[in-house]
Design goal:
It is a single chain. With about 260 residues, the protein is of the alpha+beta class. The protein has 6 helices and 7 strands. Strands 2-4-5-7-6 form a 5-stranded mixed β-sheet. A two-stranded antiparallel ribbon has the order 1-3. The radius of gyration is 19 Å and the shape is globular. Bound molecules: adenosine-5'-diphosphate. Adenosine-5'-diphosphate (ADP) binds next to helix 4 and helix 6.
Length: about 260
């Protein structure tokens, strides 16, 4: 419990730091963007490619920074009933762009799936984060399964009290994690990915979001076999009306 508290405090501090830095960075990137934009009609043709590439890089940076801002602005969570089918459909669309052909994506949704009570945009980003990790764990290709089922917690677990839950899961048959990695994945900034590839914030932020939503996250992983991350999200009383389903659009980090 003490470790969990320390982690929550670290994460809180990291969240505040991230929000501040992301905000300043965003302003800087906007300044660079306008500079490049104003410059671009005046550069000779042979340098145009360079300016275009710089603009694209700035846009990618801005996208990442916006996601960090969304994730670290904890107070803006707006939980409402979300249809897991709609959520997964939204993520699937984005995933098709991020996950290349060697990775096949399938969904496994219980026919009687209940609505979850979560912030739809954050939930979508959370699943997207897990899916990107899954993709990264399958460089040679593989199978990614996004599942949704109803479940009951008889005992409280993590931040989740006993009760009814909707479990969203992301499974891959990639590299899996050895125990010494699994032990550390919730540490902010812990990453095994190459510099510039991973921030080490993904799972900590997903865990923070889920805990703040009154749910819990479970990770099962075996080296050489794959990983399943499950998000236990509180169940909502009723499905949303169709028009309320759609989450705000989110964008993928370009990689
Ligand atoms: P990042 O993806 O930026 O490294 P995360 O917090 O999302 O940050 O993940 C931390 C580490 O956990 C990753 O660097 C990787 O070693 C491990 N990891 C996460 N998801 C998976 C997965 N699906 N399969 C294998 N390893 C994973």
């Amino acid at each position: 419990a003490e470790a969990a508290l320390r982690r929550a405090q670290t994460l809180e501090a990291v969240g505040q730091l991230t929000a501040g830095v992301a905000h300043d960075f965003n302003n800087l990137l906007q300044a660079i963007r306008s500079g490049l934009y104003l410059l671009s009609p005046h550069v000779p043709d042979r340098s145009r490619k360079l300016v275009d590439a710089s603009l694209q890089a700035v846009d990618r940076g801005a996208k990442l920074v916006r996601q960090l801002m969304v994730f670290s602005r904890r107070e803006t969570l707006q939980p409402r009933p979300v249809d897991p089918r709609a959520l997964i459909a939204g993520v699937g669309e984005l995933l098709q762009k991020a996950v290349g052909p060697p990775v096949s994506i399938t969904t496994d949704i219980a026919p009687d799936i209940a609505p979850a009570m979560v912030d739809p945009t954050q939930a979508e980003l959370a699943v997207l984060n897990l899916a990107i990790n899954a993709r990264d764990a399958m460089p040679q290709g593989g199978r990614l399964i996004i599942g949704a089922r109803n479940a009951r917690l008889e005992q409280p677990q993590g931040a989740a009290p006993a009760g009814d839950y909707v479990v969203l899961s992301v499974s891959d048959n990639g590299t899996g994690m050895p125990p010494e990695v699994l032990e550390r994945v919730l540490e902010p900034f812990f990453t095994t990915k190459a510099v510039g590839k991973g921030t080490g914030l993904g799972l900590s932020m997903v865990h923070g979001f889920v805990a703040q939503s009154g749910g819990d996250m479970r990770i099962e992983s075996r080296t050489g076999e794959g990983t399943t991350v499950s998000l236990w999200l509180p169940r909502a009383a009723a499905m949303p009306a169709a028009a309320e389903d759609a989450a705000d659009p989110v964008s993928l980090p370009a990689q």
